[in-house]
Every structure is written in structure tokens, then in C-alpha cells.
Amino acid sequence: MARPSRPSPTRRVLPAAALTTASALMLTGCGGADAPKSGPDSAKAAVPGAQRAAGVLRIGSDLNYPPVAFRGTDGRPNGLDPDLAEALGKVLGLRIEIVDTPFDELIPGVNKKQFDVAMSGISDTPARRNALGENGMPTGQPGVDFVDYFIAWTSIIVQKGNPKGIRTLDDLCGRTVAVQRGTTQDEIISRQVGVCDRAGKPLQVRRFDDDAVALAEVAAGKAVADFNDLPVAAYAARTTDDGNRFEVSGALSQSSPYGIAVNKDNTALRDAVVKGLDELMRDGVYDVILAKWNVSAGAARAAAVNGGL
User: Fold this and answer.
1) CATH fold label, 16-152+256-305
2) Is the pLDDT of residue 27 over 50?
3) pLDDT at position 253, please?
């Protein structure tokens, strides 16, 4: 989906204490032991020969998810992830090439080596790392490793004024919701379907390849809510129709880190990405980029490998 271009946003985010606590627990406590140590100039030296010879890091990204990743007024990639990617390329000594790819094709694309990594607000979950199906059983497909770099939260976005009084997951029972297919939010809603069925109030889920279409369903009253990462939901609430179309409602749920997906066979590239992100964090470049997009509350203290819960 090509969203209308917009200027750099100013958005509401979670209180810093909540997200900083989550960052500390999930990115330094979990998975941190697997992360390679970093030192001066170690990132560039750690780049594998294939990427060094090519001089480029190809990154799959769904450019339909403002403010995380979208196209700017000039048609070029813009947002939190493209900015971090460009900064990462500089410390790795590589040119960044972003390959616009539908979200549910990103992890398969990494495994098919259509690009080197995927970076598109992808939540690091055990299911994605281990290629588990909705039943929790292995799908037989390869999973990926994640290099975690940011904490996001899931939130509910509804029509302005919240006319249906949607504040919790249980408020969705007996109603219709819209969601982008293949996302963490899709997984959350899929679990809620069973809860609503047991309550005798079936939940109808409309799934779309494009989050803009899901939001349009809410705007048109065809769905009472959409589920989204908080930065994206807050951005939509603030910028759509000058803030008069949507609002973020209810309690937030399921904190999880965004991770850069890397083929499990390419541990050298994974470790170079860890070193590069740590260098950006030490030098303060990371903080500047998060502040630009008003998402400093989601900052991680250090990059981590497979730190999602």
C-alpha cells in the first residue's frame, strides 16, 4: 500500500518508565548473553566477506507502516527503521538498499536470501524464531534469528470518541475487528477469537495485507477496532484528518522487541549487526534517531540476540 506522504510526526508514546523497564528486562536480561561483545571499530571488521565484497546490505522492509517505515514525500524510504538502517550502514561501511516487500513475505525472503536481513517493525517472538504454526507446532519451515533494537507495545485503535466503548480485548467479543495479516496483532486477535467463542459472543476478524485498509475499515464503521503497535497507532490517531478520525483506546498489551531478522545460517552477519547497533547506542546516534520520531521511550539499552518472550 502507498500511504499519502506526511511530514515527520510528533506522537504520543508510553510513559518512559514503563518502556524502559520492559527494555531492560527483555533486551539486557533476556538474550543478552548471546550477544557478541563490541569494541571500537569492531562492527566494520565483523562484516562477512559476502557483504563486504558487495559493499551493500540489502534490507527487506514493508514501507507501509508509518512512522516505523514508509515512503516520504520524495518517494524514498522514511521513518524510524530506514533512519536506523542508514546509520547502521555507515558504521558497517556498507551502502543500504531497502527492498519494499509485503510484511508476511519478509521472513520467507530472508530464508530464501532475497535480501540479507529484514527490518520492518518485526516483533521478535519464539514462533517466528522457531517457525511455529498457530497450534504451536513446527511448520517445517526455517525460522530466523533476531537482533533486537526497540521495544513496542500493542494497542487498540478505534474511531474518534470511541463510540462502541472498546477498551479491552473482551470488549471486542460479538463485534468485528480489522487487522494486518501475519502480524503479532493478528496472533493476539486469533487467540481472542477462542475466548469470545467460549463466551458465546463470536468475534469476526477481517484480515488485510495492508494496515491502511484495516484502518479504513474502522473509519467506515465496518470494524470497531484495529490492532497496531503503539507508535503506529498513535501516529494514525494524530495525523489522520488532523487527529479527528481515530484515537488509541484501552490498556496496552504484550510488550515485545522489534528485531532485525537474519538467516540462522548467517551468524557472522547477525553478530556484525549487533556490534553495529551497539556502536550507534554508545555514540548517541541511536538516541538522536529515536528522538526525531518521538519514540525515545522505546529505547533499548543494548542490542540483543533473540531476546523476545
Assistant:
1) D-Maltodextrin-Binding Protein; domain 2 (3.40.190)
2) no
3) 64
